[in-house]
Structure to design on (1038 residues):
């Protein structure tokens, strides 16, 4: 049935090539009209649905404590120390100007001029912004320096221990764009030779800059990769028509798939923005058709016959490899993460379009080619070896002769890969998506060196009843938990309601350091907090304790954006609390961007890993069904399995994190590495059925379809190697790993499969030889 | 307790309103509004219930007795605030001596440690007891601190109002303020505070106005008022219960000594 359908489609296309081309272009135009409606969404947070518990809980904590999800940090470093009148005036002016930027939460911008300082002045209690009028007197500056350093609420938060660095913390509205605000702040930075250096850091800048640059780089590298592939195609086949046909298939599948999903109203997300490159890659599958076509033409010297025979010969492997690819991507739709599902279905659909084009547009273009050009090209192919590539033939016969050592070497590599796999760390760090010397990453490094940290996590302690946070025992527990957490080298600073209580106690008692402790009575604590709330900015207290004084929020500044950092903090907290329990009925729950990243890491990345594994299983099932043999299915599966194991083993061995870009890549390997084995095995079976000489058949398969496989792989590797020049590390990763995957899976097909089939020939070929 | 008479305000102040409409400058209007809002009578006593409500709808309630006395010779005023609730801060008391054109003097008494502390005036834009009101919202802002422009006259609900824009001369908590000042009672019925980005930040509304009688006089009083931070969603609702004017509060109540031992008679 399927063969008849393929044959029917092919003959129709060969008979009416112009109609087929015209029809294809018309449909493409219809899908293309949807493209201008494109909307984008670059926030990785949105990969978790709004209804996910972590997003809801985070939102609740933020509302309850009046916190902001997105914060920028403007770091100011001066080697002379920032407490000098010039730098202070800059800070004052910059703070004021930042507050005027739309999207900035005016009331909660924190800097020297807005942060409250609780002190004693001539016997009076004073709660007022740290910096009022900027003074030029050395004495007053020295006093300010002292005030900064002796106040634990300020130290490491707005001033570094060496007073060389300070920061302006800039919360922004959820709808605001961190990159655009950062750009406006950059324009405001005072110029001159005061020695001040400015650094902008924070998750929203990284995220929005990445989102922006990602599209830019995609727009740059997709066409460049396409062009490199065109050039490579030209050098392989010396045929304009081949280049056009290949690129047309790629473009058409991209336009149809993107058009369909944009038309259905899906925004283009980080994942789906990569689908053009994916589809371009999958479309190179048609190389097998061209490869075979030139060999056939050389044999039959008739264009029409060559097309039809080519399609009959490669029809089955093309269908099988594209179907498994489509199924592999569609398997991503089984996961829970919406953008990953959209991506899977989009690429799956695009693959089916490529499949359709292989039997319609490609034969139509082939039949329209000028006969003399084909003849010339076929002649060139033949001159390199009628039965395929002589070099590959030699390689394959070597592998067939030394099948066992080859298989053993493969096993040895698998063992090494296995060791690497155990070392793979699933971790995402968005700041590391930028190169080490990039502005964003250096800013983050400098700020983390000087101050408490650019990332923030919260631990919410909830007492069993209202006013629980007035209990001395509770506050002391919180305080000891803070001290414990601060032992972690990535924790730069913590602050909680206990710090405010201690500060007020000390200040009320004439700044006597002996009173810098939690008082012994609940009433005293209640009244201190009341006093503080009477004088300070309401947000100071609201950020650390909730309205009924039942929950307290410990804010933890972290020096790393690694997702695992918060896990370490929580493990430490739980271990400490096991030995020093909180008062009865008290619960602890984490929140904040650092915790969100941890959950995101676990849910999104592990979600992708499980979708990927189910994709693998699905591919294996399809292979078994298609080859109607468990053994042959397994054989086809070997190069894919081998490639994935070795590549991710390498990732583990070199200590690269399994992050979002690598996870995306894994799905790509699923779609591509399988193709080679399918082509090899199906063509081998066809040849073996008519020639029945095992070693010759294997060598033939490695030399002729193998040439197509190697061409396909090289084409691909070249296209992706271009990405190595990108300035975002995920693209470099994708480029380098992609080239490695392609080369490895093609070589493992050409080298491993002949050896394996040779070793297991009796079981595999039982009843087939005669 | 003094008699409370609720009168239809338009009727009561009609003759006054007609008289007042003769070309007042914006500054004069604000001056009259401040007098009507911040210093009616020679003194006043009220029980104040203040609800601080956050965006989540969670509430903190403060109940206090407020005494105010105007001192002769300009606009000097003294305030005495005594907290009844929340229970764990009971007996906390707060004393403010307010001077025109000069920083306030403030003292607080903390009963748990039996300690009175002077509080250095933070700039008067800071929050009043954690509410959405700032100190100057409670006790008034110097007339000369802003330049005032009469924008228009319009009705707000049933009341004819002047709409005055006040722009601070020096940096302040707001970049400009619009006030709807009733022509009859001179009370500000609504105020809009704009932030540095010229976005609406806070809105004050006088939600309920009663004319409180004292002897022969009546004082229109905003007995229910709300200040809402429209950006954070936080709001403060204040209800003045049992307001009385011209009750003859002795001046020695407004001293550090009575902070520690608040005279019970006046705190009820």
């Amino acid at each position: 049935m399927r063969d008849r359908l393929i044959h029917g489609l092919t003959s129709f296309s060969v008979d009416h090539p112009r109609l087929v081309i015209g029809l294809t272009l018309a449909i493409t135009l219809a899908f293309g009209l949807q493209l201008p409606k494109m909307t984008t969404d670059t926030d990785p947070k949105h990969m978790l649905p709004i209804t996910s518990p972590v997003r809801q809980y985070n939102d609740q904590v933020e509302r309850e404590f009046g916190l902001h999800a997105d914060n920028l940090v403007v770091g100011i470093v001066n080697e002379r120390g920032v407490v000098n009148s010039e730098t202070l005036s800059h800070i004052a002016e910059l703070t004021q100007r930042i507050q005027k930027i739309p999207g900035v939460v005016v009331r909660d911008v924190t800097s020297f001029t807005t942060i409250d300082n609780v002190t004693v002045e001539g016997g009076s209690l004073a709660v007022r912004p740290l910096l009022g009028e900027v003074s030029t007197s050395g004495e007053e500056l020295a006093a300010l320096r002292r005030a900064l350093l002796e106040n634990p609420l300020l130290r490491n938060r707005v001033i570094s221990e060496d007073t060389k660095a300070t920061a302006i913390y800039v919360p922004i509205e959820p709808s605001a764009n961190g990159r655009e605000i950062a750009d406006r702040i950059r324009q405001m930075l005072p110029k001159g030779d005061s020695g001040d250096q400015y650094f902008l850091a924070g998750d929203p800048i990284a995220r929005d800059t990445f989102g922006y640059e990602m599209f830019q780089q995609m727009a740059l590298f997709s066409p460049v990769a396409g062009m490199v592939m065109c050039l490579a195609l030209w050098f392989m086949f010396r045929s304009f028509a081949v280049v056009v046909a290949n690129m047309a298939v790629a473009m058409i599948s991209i336009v149809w798939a993107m058009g369909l999903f944009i038309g259905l109203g899906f925004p283009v997300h980080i994942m789906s923005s990569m689908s053009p490159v994916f589809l371009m890659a999958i479309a190179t599958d048609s190389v097998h058709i061209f490869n075979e076509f030139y060999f056939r033409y050389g044999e039959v010297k008739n264009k029409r016959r060559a097309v039809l025979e080519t399609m009959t010969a490669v029809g089955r492997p093309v269908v099988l490899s594209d179907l498994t690819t489509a199924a592999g991507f569609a398997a991503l739709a089984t996961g829970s993460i919406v953008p990953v599902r959209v991506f899977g279905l989009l690429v799956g659909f695009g693959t089916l379009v490529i499949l359709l084009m292989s039997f319609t547009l490609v034969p139509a273009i082939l039949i329209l080619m000028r006969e003399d050009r084909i003849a010339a090209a076929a002649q060139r192919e033949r001159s390199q070896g009628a039965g395929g590539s002589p070099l590959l033939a030699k390689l394959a016969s070597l592998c067939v002769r030394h099948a066992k050592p080859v298989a053993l070497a493969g096993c040895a590599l698998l063992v090494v890969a296995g060791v690497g796999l155990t070392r793979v760390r699933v971790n995402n760090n968005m700041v590391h998506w930028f190169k080490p010397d990039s502005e964003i990453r250096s800013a983050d490094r400098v700020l983390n060196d000087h101050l408490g940290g650019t990332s923030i996590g919260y631990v919410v302690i909830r007492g069993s009843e209202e006013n629980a946070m007035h209990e001395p025992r509770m506050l002391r527990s919180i305080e000891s938990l803070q001290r414990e957490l601060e032992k972690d080298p990535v924790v730069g600073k913590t602050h909680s309601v206990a710090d405010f209580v201690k500060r007020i106690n000390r200040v009320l008692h004439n700044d006597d350091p002996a009173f810098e402790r939690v008082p012994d009575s609940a009433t005293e604590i209640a009244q201190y907090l009341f006093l503080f709330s009477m004088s300070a900015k309401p947000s100071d207290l609201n950020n650390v304790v909730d309205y009924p004084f039942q929950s307290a929020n410990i804010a933890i500044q972290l020096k790393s954006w690694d997702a695992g950092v918060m896990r370490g903090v929580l493990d430490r907290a739980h271990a400490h609390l096991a030995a020093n329990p909180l008062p009865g009925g008290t619960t602890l729950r984490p929140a904040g961007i650092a915790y969100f990243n941890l959950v995101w890491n676990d849910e999104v990345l592990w979600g992708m890993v499980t979708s990927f594994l189910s994709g693998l299983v699905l591919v294996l099932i399809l292979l078994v069904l298609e080859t109607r043999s468990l053994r042959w299915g397994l054989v086809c599966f070997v190069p894919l399995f081998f490639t994935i194991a070795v590549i991710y083993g390498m990732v583990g061995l070199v200590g690269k994190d399994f992050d979002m870009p690598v996870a995306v890549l894994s799905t790509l390997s699923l779609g591509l590495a399988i193709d080679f084995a399918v082509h090899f095995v199906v063509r081998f079976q066809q040849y073996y059925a008519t020639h029945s000489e095992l070693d010759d058949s294997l060598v033939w398969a490695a030399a002729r379809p193998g040439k197509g496989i190697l061409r396909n792989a090289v084409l691909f590797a070249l296209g992706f190697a271009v990405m190595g020049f990108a300035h975002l590390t995920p693209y470099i990763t994708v480029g380098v790993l992609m080239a490695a995957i392609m080369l490895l899976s093609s070589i493992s097909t050409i080298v491993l499969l002949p050896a394996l089939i040779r070793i297991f020939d009796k079981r595999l070929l039982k009843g087939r030889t005669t | 307790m003094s008699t409370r008479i609720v009168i239809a305000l338009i009727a009561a102040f009609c003759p006054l309103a007609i008289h007042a409409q003769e070309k007042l400058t914006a500054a004069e209007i604000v001056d009259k509004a401040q007098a009507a809002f911040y210093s009616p009578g020679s003194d006043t006593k009220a029980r104040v219930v203040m609800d601080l409500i956050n965006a989540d709808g969670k509430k903190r309630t403060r109940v206090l007795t407020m005494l105010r006395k105007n001192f002769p010779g300009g606009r000097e005023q003294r305030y005495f605030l005594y907290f009844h609730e929340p229970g764990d801060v009971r007996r906390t008391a707060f004393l403010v001596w307010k001077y025109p054109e000069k920083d306030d003097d403030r003292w607080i008494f903390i009963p748990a440690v039996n300690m009175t502390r002077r509080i250095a005036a933070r700039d008067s834009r800071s929050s009043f007891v954690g509410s959405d009101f700032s100190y100057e919202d409670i006790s008034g802002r110097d007339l000369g601190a802003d330049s005032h422009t009469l924008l228009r006259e319009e009705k707000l609900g049933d009341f004819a109002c002047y709409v005055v824009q006040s722009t601070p001369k020096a940096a302040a908590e707001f970049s400009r303020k619009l006030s709807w000042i009733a022509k009859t009672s001179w009370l500000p019925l609504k105020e809009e505070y704009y932030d540095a980005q010229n976005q609406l930040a806070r809105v004050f509304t006088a939600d309920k106005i009663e004319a409180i009688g004292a002897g022969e006089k009546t004082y229109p009083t905003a007995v229910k008022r709300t200040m809402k931070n429209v950006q954070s969603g936080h709001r403060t609702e204040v209800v003045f219960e049992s307001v009385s004017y011209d009750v003859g509060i002795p001046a020695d109540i407004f001293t550090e000594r009575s902070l520690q031992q608040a005279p019970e008679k006046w705190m009820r």
